[in-house]
Design the sequence.
């Protein structure tokens, strides 16, 4: 099941705005970016919060309520450390030069799953 268009667009817009505001960049492989944004959007649909999609949780609902791993997670906000590789500092070897991604780019990757 894919994320709703509403949540996908919200997470895309959030990601672009947050990257620009923090001086971070999406992964050089925009496929990574697409999958992470889709995962955030799915969690927003399912849990009401953009819980980090790159971690395993025993209880997703409890984690979303606790908010520590809701994007942007505490490690990202405090230290600019993004486990998902969505927001990368320019000195990161995997950082690209993009702070935007289109809905078509996201769907072209996520439609393959």
Sequence:
């Amino acid at each position: 099941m894919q994320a709703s268009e509403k949540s996908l667009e919200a997470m895309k817009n959030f990601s672009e705005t947050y990257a620009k505001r923090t001086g971070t960049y999406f992964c050089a492989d925009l496929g990574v970016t697409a999958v992470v944004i889709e995962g955030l959007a799915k969690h927003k649909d399912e849990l009401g919060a953009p819980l980090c999609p790159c971690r395993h949780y025993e209880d997703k609902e409890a984690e979303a309520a606790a908010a520590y791993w809701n994007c942007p997670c505490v490690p990202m906000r405090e230290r600019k450390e993004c486990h998902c590789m969505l927001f990368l500092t320019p000195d990161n070897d995997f950082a690209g030069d993009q702070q935007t991604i289109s809905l078509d780019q996201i769907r072209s990757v996520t439609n393959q799953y």
Summary: Residues 61 and 93 are 34 Å apart (CA to CA). Residues 5-22 form the longest helix (18 residues). The helical segments are 5-22, 30-47, 60-66, 74-79, 103-110.
